[in-house]
Amino acid sequence: MAGVTWLKPVSIDGDAQAAYNEFLRDLESRLADPATDRNVVAREVLAQAMYGREYGQLLADAPIAALNLDARNVTFEAEYYMVTDTEQFARVKPLLWLWKNLDLTPVGQNPVTGIPVRRILAGHIFRRVGRDFKCWQNVEFSVGYNMEVGHGVVVHRHVLLDDIGGIELHDHASVSDYVNIYSHTHSVLDGPDVTLRRTVIGRGARITYHSTVLAGSVVSDDAMLATHALLRGDIPPHGIAMGLPARVTRFKDRARPEAYAVDSRTYPHDGGRKANPHFPDPTPNQSRLPGEGDLL
Ligand SMILES: CC(C)(COP(=O)(O)OP(=O)(O)OC[C@H]1O[C@@H](n2cnc3c(N)ncnc32)[C@H](O)[C@@H]1OP(=O)(O)O)[C@@H](O)C(=O)NCCC(=O)NCCS
User: Fold this and answer.
1) Which of 112-126, 249-263, 269-283 has the lowest mean pLDDT?
2) CB of 209 shorter than 6 A to ligand 1
3) pTM value surpassing 0.85
4) Distance (Å, rounded) from C-alpha 135 to C-alpha 108?
């Protein structure tokens, strides 16, 4: 049934679509130019989308509104983390600010403009993004630059992708509404003792609505995390994990491919890195082994 969809194409007024296309082409070409100041592009787009004015005019008339559109005048939570790479974050920050604030406007809430804008921005923020990335509104990242996204990935509304320790979303993975995917964790004994672990969502895997995936989990190809589940380990290929904490209770009954992109039994697990120099990295034998976390 590959290629089958339950979605249908929807079109809008041709003149409106032509105006949107021009806006998207302009944004794409400005961001493609290495000489572009991303802070300036972001504040200009936001001044138009939010206030229908040039940034300079807005600054003269309503300085507080204008100053808050320039990413150099705002901070993100990630900037308070010692582990955030200052240089990498400075590069993506104006585009994350643009992404976040467009979601407060009709440009972001309208999928006809919001989805292609995010596709453009993802190409300049993420470590990697494949074809046809489809991201709906109100999705948040920690730093954005630690996201690795394959082809045909879909992320639905109100999702938190905490990528400070790295998140991989493999080809055709789907993340449903109100999901939280984490890649950092705090010690039970000592809050400032933070460990980063890359979290992996395999090819065609589905993380369904209102579920949470904790740092370092590996969800294999074609696996599924049930709604409202709390995953704190791995799901083997085709497994369905449910509950709090999640346990694998069933497997999808279907033909097995010859090779998996992500199989939690063999996929390299992230042993974890400390995010705070006051706490040393664990010795290698404290790291998890492949398959060790399977929730069977
Ligand atoms: C995983 C899921 C598909 C199971 O649905 P189902 O096959 O219809 O399951 P059933 O209703 O027949 O329930 C089977 C058993 O699993 C349990 N169960 C089902 N869903 C559960 C859940 N989310 N959490 C915990 N237990 C669950 C049921 O209580 C039942 O237990 P029992 O056998 O002890 O009575 C469903 O819970 C789910 O998460 N759907 C998500 C929908 C989706 O695809 N969202 C993405 C859209 S973008």
Assistant:
1) 269-283
2) yes
3) yes
4) 11
Is 179 near ligand 1, meaning CB less than 6 Å away? no
Q: Cα of 22 to ligand 1 centre, how many Å? A: 45
Higher-scoring residue by pLDDT: 296, 219: 219
- Residue 228 Cα to ligand 1 midpoint, Å, equals 10
Burial level of 274, CB count in 10 A (0-12/13-18/19+)? middle
Question: In the CATH hierarchy, which top-level class contains the domain 126-286?
Answer: mainly beta
Please tell me if the CB atom of residue 176 comes closer than 6 angstroms to any atom of ligand 1: yes
Contacts of residue 131, defined as CB under 8 A and 6 or more positions apart, other chains included, come to: 151, 152
User: Atom 3 in ligand 1: which residue has the minimum CA distance?
Assistant: 226
